[in-house]
Design goal:
The protein has four helices and eight strands. The chain is of the alpha+beta class.
Length: 257
């Protein structure tokens, strides 16, 4: 099969060379640079057909301009703010879910419950054991061509492709085997060192907490510590008097008859 493919490739190359030679012999007013571009386009089309791809399809841009309305800020207990560029152009429903839950305060106080060195850090579960989610319905998959590189932020899911809800993970190192199996919806653009500092474990003994999640355009200042719980309000009801227990009677030994 490989030998046949190789012969096809050689044949295509020979045909391109022959056609270009003929064109040059005929003149036609085209320069060598134009011919090279045409040859490259033909090769790309042939390669796409061999791989079963649509030659007309285009990959989304690797990066987009930073827009505060599409930047997700995570203030972590492991230190610092992580800034994530959201990508509504490739996963609009997932980005909308992240924004909705964030503005509800859903992620505040949640922990990273599954952190595997060299792989990823997973969070966003209110139960903290990987089985929980929000009260909103699960999302339909929005798999896209974006690769799982260092700093990629993708949506976690169960067995079903359409089971993503609130949990997400941040990739430490490239994991291309996840591509088109999980929905990529963003990437870290600042603060990756704080992601690296997330406490490891499944679950971690001392899990890192999301102190605050916010959308950057909302202008919330960074949070560096969990809020101190308020002291209990003083009671205005006077305490009831405590009755002293009656003195216990000494046990009396039975008399001999």
């Amino acid at each position: 099969m490989r030998f046949t493919s190789a012969l096809k490739t050689v044949a295509i190359g020979f045909a391109l060379y022959a056609s270009s030679g003929a064109a040059l012999a005929q003149g036609g007013g085209r320069n060598a640079e134009e011919m090279k571009k045409e040859e490259a386009a033909v090769r790309a089309e042939q390669t796409a057909k061999q791989l079963g791809l649509d030659p007309a399809s285009k990959l989304p841009p690797a990066t987009v301009p930073v827009d505060p309305q599409n930047v997700w800020d995570l203030d972590l207990s492991s230190g610092g703010r992580v800034r994530i560029q959201l990508r509504p152009d490739i996963a609009p429903q997932h980005v909308e879910r992240i924004k909705e839950l964030t503005r509800q305060g859903f992620y505040n106080g949640l922990k990273f419950h599954r952190v595997i060195p060299g792989f990823m850090a997973q969070g966003g579960d209110p139960k903290g054991d990987g089985t929980g989610g929000s009260t909103l319905p699960d999302l339909k998959a929005e798999f896209n061509p974006m690769p799982h590189l260092r700093g990629t932020v993708s949506m976690a899911r169960a067995q079903s492709e359409d089971s993503a809800n609130s949990q997400f993970f941040i990739v430490f190192l490239p994991r291309m085997q996840l591509d088109k199996k999980y929905t990529v919806f963003g990437r870290v653009i600042d603060g990756m060192q704080y992601v690296d500092a997330i406490h490891q474990g499944e679950p971690p003994a001392d899990p890192t907490i999301i102190l605050q999640a916010s959308i950057e355009s909302d202008g919330k200042p960074p949070v560096t510590a969990l809020p101190t719980p308020p002291a209990p309000a003083p009671s205005i009801v006077p305490p009831l008097p405590v009755k002293k227990p009656a003195p216990a009677k000494k046990p009396v030994a039975p008399r001999k008859k």
